[in-house]
Amino acid sequence: MNERMLDVAVDEARAGLREGGIPIGAALFAADGTLLGRGHNRRVQNDDPSIHAETDAFRDAGRQRDYRSTTMVTTLAPCWYCSGLVRQFGIGSLVVGENRTFDGGLDWLISAGVTVTVLDDDRCVTMMSEFVAAQPILWNEDIGVPE
Amino acid sequence: MNERMLDVAVDEARAGLREGGIPIGAALFAADGTLLGRGHNRRVQNDDPSIHAETDAFRDAGRQRDYRSTTMVTTLAPCWYCSGLVRQFGIGSLVVGENRTFDGGLDWLISAGVTVTVLDDDRCVTMMSEFVAAQPILWNEDIGVPE
Asked: Is residue B104 pLDDT above 90, yes or no?
């Protein structure tokens, strides 16, 4: 099921790339595999620094009363901002496409009780490493690294 | 200067309360005191769980290239989601109206190098404690506490 869920996040990342944006996608699923929300980074498209992929998927899922049985799937290891989202709302599981390009707070989430799975998916590694090589300034802006 | 900056966040929190929302406000300031962005929690008003006060102020400030000299001011100690925002984007200073009603990740931010000031402001304590007493279910929803 993880691979099928990741496919949705990869589709979102590719949509972001086509829009000229940062290619990171995410999706939130219920325990039975129902898609609750999906989205991608919108820094460039919406000129909005607050919308990372995980934030967008979380927003798209609307107001939920209990996230413990949900799974957040993302093409790239979440940054502190998005790791904080997962922890605060008690999202039970996190599936990560890859953590080679960027390794966020995965250990922090594991220690907080989140079930973390890293798929090390070739599509995710290629898409993100090519993007970072092509647009390093934009990437650094997105993770708060000053010039 | 902290009190004057907090006044902006309090105004935002009160605006949220008038709109029927959760009364938490925030603002982002440059080192010279220039207001960069301001906002408040919009869970109820926008039906959007992703917009906490700090997120809203961060978004309102638009894309910035370097947050190290900025100060985030918020009426209530930030949750993990908003603490993650502060940490990831390297916001240098955090001014908190109160941390009696909710104590987020302040120690975590201090250990990450963020300068944290807690003002223990009576207006903030009263507004938030009255809200939590009046609407405990909505408050728990906003911080991811299941029923």
From this structure: no
What ipTM does the predicted assembly reach? 0.97
Give the contacts of A36 (CB within 8 A, at least 6 positions apart): A28, A29, A30, A60, A61, A62, A64, A70
Per the DSSP assignment, residues forming a β-bridge with A27 are A38, A73
Chain B CB contacts of A49 under 8 Å are 58-59, 61-64, 89
Quick: pLDDT tens for A121-146: 999 999 999 999 999 999 999 999 99
Q: Which residues in A lie closer than 8 A to residue B87 (C-beta atoms)?
A: 80-81, 84
> Which residues on adjacent β-strands are paired with residue A117?
A95
Measured at the CA of B97, the angle between CA B33 and CA B128, to 5 degrees, comes to 135
- Determine which of A24, A65, A85 to mutate to test the interface with B (most B C-beta atoms within 10 Å): A85
Residue B68 CA to its chain's centroid (Å): 18
- Please tell me the distance in Å from A59's CA to the nearest CA on chain B: 5
Cβ–Cβ below 8 Å for A146 and B66: yes
Of A65, A82, A147, the CB nearest to B146: A65
Question: Does residue A76 have a pLDDT over 90?
Answer: yes
For residue B50, CA distances in Å to A124, B55, B107 come to 25, 8, 23
Which residues are registered as beta bridge partners of B95? B73, B117
